[in-house]
Amino acid sequence: MIVVEVKKKDTWLRRSENLKQYYCYLNEESGIETVSENELRSKNNNKFLSFENFENSGGLLGNDYSRLCSIKLTEKTTLGATAVMWVDDHPSLEIDPDIINDKDPGHLRIYFSMESRTNRKVHNPSGDFLIQNYFYDILMTYEMNSTIPLNYLNLNMESELYLNNEIENYKKSKKFKVAYFASNCGDHTGRDKFVAELSNYIEVHSFGKCRHNADPSILFPSCKSCNFAKECILKNFYFTLALENSYDIDYVTEKFYEPLKVGSIPIYRGAPNVAKFSPHEDSYINTNDFQNVKSLADYLHNIIEDDELHFQKTIGWRSERLKNAQFRNLTKFGFDSSICRLCFHIKENY
């Protein structure tokens, strides 16, 4: 059994906190109960999580394991840890003394962060994960060249995108044009300025703190009781602005995938290699493909008015699921498989 202890480092307060332990069992084939990702993240959860036939990363794609892994998640940290995972929400160039002065020098040190390189520069002048690698044995980040890469996909994403029973109702459900959710209004990418200009040519409903002009509780009162309230709202829109807070390689977040699942076309601005993380070239609109905001708005109006074009952008591409093996492979590198992949990596390399 491999025990991974999770700690959170608070850079601001210069302290760390023990959060939980994962008990990782490899190659066990009985007594396993599969649970969802949401259940895995919930508190006081002692169920088991299992995965079969996934691919271990090791920083690379293509190594098929076809093994069984089970995980027990506990809020207690009573067993001696094989490895310590540091969850760092506010990365800093100055390494926390708790890590340097680890009580047990035999611990593997794991660095976990889903923050982008650009945003890390607020605390880390270089923004380079390799600086952390000098102090850590294993890196778990969104970058696909990490020891254990983590993207915003999951093992169920393919079926969520391609086998949606409501797919034929996408056109009928569209009552509004463009949806926008954002709470960080001071970001350096200029997305607020972009939205302001786009609003001159097409109606944009903004539900977040930035450019707020719409109240979801009034427009969509039934969505308040939904488990996925945001997706409940997005399904009513032809388009959703998926504007990342930084433009880093591999940094494609849930902003891109949430609208796809409910038939709202993402208008994407962010990672330069977003095509690698998309299910199909017709599934989204890249703002970089247009000379200016007005030409983008003209294209959006064209999609709304052209039933055939709208069908291709929302439904047509979903019939070509088998052609995109790369996207199907990427679904194996999300959070829900991360602990199993980590444990296999530890077993085989340490």
Automatic annotation (TrEMBL):
InterPro entries: Glyco_tran_10_C, Glyco_trans_10, GT10-like_C_sf. Its EC number is 2.4.1.-. It comes from the Eukaryota. It is found in: Endomembrane system; Golgi apparatus, Golgi stack membrane; Membrane. One of its GO terms (molecular function) is fucosyltransferase activity. It is an enzyme of class 2 (transferase). The keyword Transmembrane applies. Pfam families: Glyco_transf_10. It is a single-pass membrane protein; Single-pass type II membrane protein. Pathway: Protein modification; protein glycosylation. Keywords: Glycoprotein, Glycosyltransferase, Golgi apparatus, Membrane, Signal-anchor, Transferase, Transmembrane, Transmembrane helix. One of its GO terms (cellular component) is Golgi cisterna membrane. Residues 172-348 form the Fucosyltransferase C-terminal domain. Belongs to the glycosyltransferase 10 family. PANTHER family: ALPHA- 1,3 -FUCOSYLTRANSFERASE, ALPHA-(1,3)-FUCOSYLTRANSFERASE 10. This is Fucosyltransferase. The gene is A4LEA.
